[in-house]
């Protein structure tokens, strides 16, 4: 039987994906092993905790001169500096301390190649930034767009910012980020392209995603550049065989408060590997989901991106998310709180008590 063009493309993609997986240098962790390692870190109660915000003793004791901290790390033969933005009572910060930073091999690699400085996003002390500016820690967290805690900002051998991870990620992805910066891959490729070298998900681009009645059906005409829409837009980029996507659907998206707030959005679900379905994007471009995901530089699934009624991107969640954070983001976007509060975490800090009261009264699942 003659092989079709589509079959040829699938075979080529499979071969490229396999070659990339086999060549993925020191990170070489097979995808099933990644899934097993991280299967327990996507699902947890993300309401404020008793975590006191303390950092491990292997964090650098800094005098808040990040410029000197970076210079010292490089003088000592390290690959750069990591600035950690966190806060007390943050369930995601607790998770990175108890899961990611509890893995001895990851910590050994981190301290061998980097110094890491821990900051609280609410700290009003003055610091010196890696580029020599002077401002408060709080203002620096705003400048660095530390929308979620924890946020990790990586500064590399050329003293420039190489990568930022906003939110909590499974350990294998943090390992990839460490190697990406330590080996200076950021100088030649995006983190998305670096991860794609080991991504076997190309094998599953034809498999179905999990349906939900909230999702719009194709054709996807999302253009808002000429005429504004009646409500904001939420685009959820997913992929098949994605454990984090499964958890999103089975837990946060089934929460009654989340679904009530989501009703105020147009909601679209897209497969990041789909190279056939046409999408008219919010700014009027005609792209496939795969092309759009590449233009948006997405490297994590699921990623939720929120657009205003004029089609401007205003916010994205591209890390592990559970009920409390997702419900807060939906309210933050719907109420346009971002116009006066540019960092979600600062706004949410003032809203925690009210939000906890809402969640204490909510039914655990949406009513069918």
Give me the secondary-structure topology.
Elements: H1 5-22, H2 31-38, H3 66-75, E1 80-86, H4 91-98, H5 104-113, E2 114-120, E3 126-128, E4 134-136, H6 137-143, E5 151-155, E6 161-166, H7 171-182, H8 191-196, E7 220-221, E8 233-238, H9 243-250, H10 256-262, E9 266-271, E10 279-280, E11 286-287, H11 289-295, E12 303-307, E13 313-317, H12 323-334, H13 344-361
Low-confidence stretches: 1-38
> What's the CATH class label of the largest domain?
Alpha Beta
Overall domain count:
2
Overall form: globular
Hey, roughly how much beta strand do the residues contain? 15-25%
CATH topology of the largest domain: Glutaredoxin
Write the CATH architecture name of the largest domain.
3-Layer(aba) Sandwich
Lateral arrangement of strands in the main beta sheet: 2-1-5-6
Q: Separation of termini?
A: 47 Å
Overall average residue pLDDT: 86
Within CATH, the superfamily of the largest domain carries the name Glutaredoxin
Q: How many beta-strand elements?
A: 13
Order of helices and strands: HHHEHHEEEHEEHHEEHHEEEHEEHH
Question: Portion of residues in helices?
Answer: 25-40%
Largest sheet: 4 strands, mixed
Radius of gyration: 21 Å
Structural class: alpha/beta
How many distinct helices? 13
